[in-house]
Design goal:
This protein is mainly α and about 290 residues long. About 80% of the residues lie in helices and about 0% in strands. Helix 1 packs antiparallel against helix 13. The protein is elongated.
Length: about 290
């Protein structure tokens, strides 16, 4: 009867440990990934800096009939280095809860010079109308550039209250991260007390690894994330690239847990077999009194 109760307890602790392991991995992953450093690394790895800059230049070129300013002026106004620095600033300012600071001095200078050259060639009087059109042109350039720097659509998500909810959830996750680790330690101690902890611990690791590795492998193998439909190519490549990265991290973690679980189970089987062999030899060759 006692052995049956012990077996049931082992199974229950093992099941609880599986979910505790998955929860701890999820919490740790969220804590590590929802950072400006990770998001910036994803911008770099998905060529988003280049895509955003090309998209900006295309918008200026397509809107030539509205602005009447050649694309070359905008190319001098906004460099690829400016785009990189501005995207990074947008991401960092969101995490630091402050307004982003952008440098538009070169854009103001280049657009102003273009207006002055045009006015000189066409003999345009620099009156109030001239100043208003110059201000509108600078404002248009700044606003258009700002839209392209917000590659993660922080402004849209802030207006919808999504960022606040995500930040609150991540703060809650970070708050209870050590609670999950503590629960795992307690479960491990209980498992040790119930004995055969190497086998059951390996089973818990193997099971949690399967639950993480199999679904993520299916998602990646079938390219499910790439099937998302987003209007902006820049946003599409960034979002799908980031999601693939996160799923890939979970997949690799799952395979590591799975392999570790198999190793533990094999170790237990080898040692238990050796113990049985030793015990059988002892029974076959009793020591004479």
């Amino acid at each position: 009867m006692k052995s049956k109760i012990t077996s049931v307890l082992r199974i229950l602790v093992c099941i609880i440990m599986v979910f505790a392991i998955i929860g701890t991995v999820g919490i740790t992953t969220a804590d590590k990934l929802y950072t400006p450093e990770y998001l910036i690394s994803q911008v770099s790895s998905t060529n988003t800096y280049e895509n955003a800059y090309n998209s900006l230049m295309k918008r200026f070129s397509d809107n030539y009939s509205v602005s009447n300013i050649p694309k070359e002026v905008y190319e001098k106004s906004f460099s690829s280095e400016w785009m990189k620095a501005s995207i990074d600033e947008k991401i960092r300012s969101n995490f630091e809860n402050r307004d982003a600071v952008f440098d538009f001095s070169e854009a103001e200078k280049c657009i102003t010079e273009y207006f002055e050259e045009y006015a000189h060639e066409k003999h345009v009087i620099k009156d109030e109308t001239y100043e208003n059109k110059l201000a509108q042109a600078v404002n248009y350039a700044q606003k258009t550039a700002l839209n392209e720097t917000d590659v993660y659509s922080f402004d849209v998500m802030n207006r919808a209250g999504i960022i606040g909810k995500i930040s609150s959830a991540v703060e809650l996750v970070r708050k209870y991260k050590y609670v999950c680790i503590g629960v795992l330690i307690v479960l491990l101690i209980i498992m040790i007390m119930l004995k055969r902890h190497v086998y059951w611990g390996g089973t818990a690791l193997f099971s949690s690894g399967i639950l993480m590795a199999v679904p993520t492998t299916i998602v990646l193998a079938n390219h499910m994330i790439e099937k998302f439909s987003l209007k902006s190519f820049t946003t599409y490549t960034l979002v799908t690239g980031t999601l693939n990265s996160i799923v890939g991290i979970i997949q690799k973690t799952g395979f590591v847990l799975l392999a570790t679980g198999v190793l533990f189970i094999l170790i237990y089987c080898v040692f238990s077999k050796n113990e049985r062999n030793a015990e059988n030899e002892k029974n076959d060759n009793p020591v004479s009194p």
